[in-house]
Amino acid sequence: MKKHLKDAASWTLKSSSSSQEAVNNEQAINNEQAVNNEQADSPNANEIFPKDTPASTTAIVPSKFISRDDFFTTWLSWKDEFLTYMKDIDKEEANRNMWGIMLLNRMGPVGQEICRTFSFHDKNAQDDIKVLIKKFDIYCMYRDKKKVNEDIDKYVNDLKLTATAHNYSDPASIVREKIIEDISTQRFTGKAALFIERKGTNFIPFLQSLDLNNIILFWKQCEDLMAQKCNEYNEEMPKQNAAHVTSIVIDCSRCGKQHNRNRCLAWGVQCSKCKQFNHLTECCKVKYVDNCTKCGTSHIQSRCPAFGEVCTKCGKSNHLSWKCQIPFINNCWRCGQDHVASACPAQGQICRRCNKPNHLEEQCASKLDDNTQQQ
Fold it and tell me: Are residues 92 and 212 in the same domain?
């Protein structure tokens, strides 16, 4: 009896072991098939580029990133190797539209995981090599966002210093893209939120149409608007009078028309004179100078380019030489030089030849008469 039990137990163990081995083999086969499928789905140079294109290349194929630390350490040099490699295998750049896919493929799982954290406002930009590289540049160099109470000018200056420290070829462009990214992901409140909501899908194109200085100015104005109440009048009125409030028509000084509160057509519009927002150019209250007599350009009264400049003609300040209105004398008969009428070097000088004032001996009329008689 014991022998039968022992044999049965032995058979059960063998059967169980065989079953487990079969399961393991099946899982191994499934895993291998999954890996093969994933590798088959991943694009490579042979699949992307035509077979009749020469496959030989002398460029170094960059290796995949093994960790995020590896990415932060080597990305800037890694991308140069990648671009060199791509230019070598696609010299005519006939398949440049596929470079973005190749980039993610060569970066491996680490790069693809980082890419999933990016936000793309244009779906067509997800595979754009320029857009991807710039986003990876920003991710590599700038890991933090602006703190709540951090000064914008200080923050922007730190961004510029970081780009310079990384020897970035165009610091202004990467700083501009970083600020656009920060603004687009910042949670604005109050009047700033109202303005951004009204821009809708045109908000990002609006930011991209501005240069770096105007983006910074716009950001500062949004921060200022956040401190203001969204609709002070409505907050003071009871909720039951909300319909009455919105029906009030005002004479707007920003657009010059009559309209309901918070329905101004000038909201979000940039004035072409003062470059400020939320009023039309014809309603601008800033004093503006057309064809300035000091610099020759048109500008806000307090922003003349000639302010502090020294005229090379008369030596006086706050106007440019080509707009100098002081009379100028060429080949002065008193001193023989070119100068402003009020700055003759002979003024107050006594001629040693005729003892008369306000001319030099070389320009003395009696000397000139003598020379004429001798001739």
Answer: yes
Domain of 126?
68-227
Is 212 a member of any domain?
Answer: yes
Q: Are residues 100 and 218 in the same domain?
A: yes
**Terminal alpha carbon distance of the chain:** 157
Residue 356 lies inside a defined structural domain of this protein: yes
Average pLDDT over every residue of 126-153: 83
Question: 93 and 157, same structural domain?
Answer: yes
Q: Find residue 251's DSSP bridge partners.
A: 258
H/E element holding 329? strand 328-329
d(CA 364, CA 375): 17
Is pTM beyond 0.90? Reply is: no
Q: Is residue 294 part of a domain?
A: yes
302-331: pLDDT as tens digits: 678 777 788 877 778 888 877 787 777 888
The tokens of 114 are what? 């980082």
The reply to whether 32 falls in a domain is no
Q: How far is CA 187 from the centre of its chain?
A: 20
* Each residue's pLDDT tens digit, 335-364: 888 877 777 888 888 888 888 888 888 888
The token duo for 179 is 């600020």
Strand, coil or helix: 159: helix
What span, in angstroms and rounded, lies between the C-alpha atoms of 87 and 61?
Answer: 12
Using alpha carbons, list the distances in angstroms from residue 215 to 181, 281, 341: 11, 19, 48
Residues 90 and 203 in one domain: yes
Number of domains into which the chain is organized: 4
Measured at the alpha carbon of residue 346, what is the angle toward residues 345 and 348, in degrees to the nearest 5? 110
Helix (H, G, I), strand (E, B) or coil at 350: strand
Which residues have CB under 8 Å from 147's CB, separation 6+?
A: none
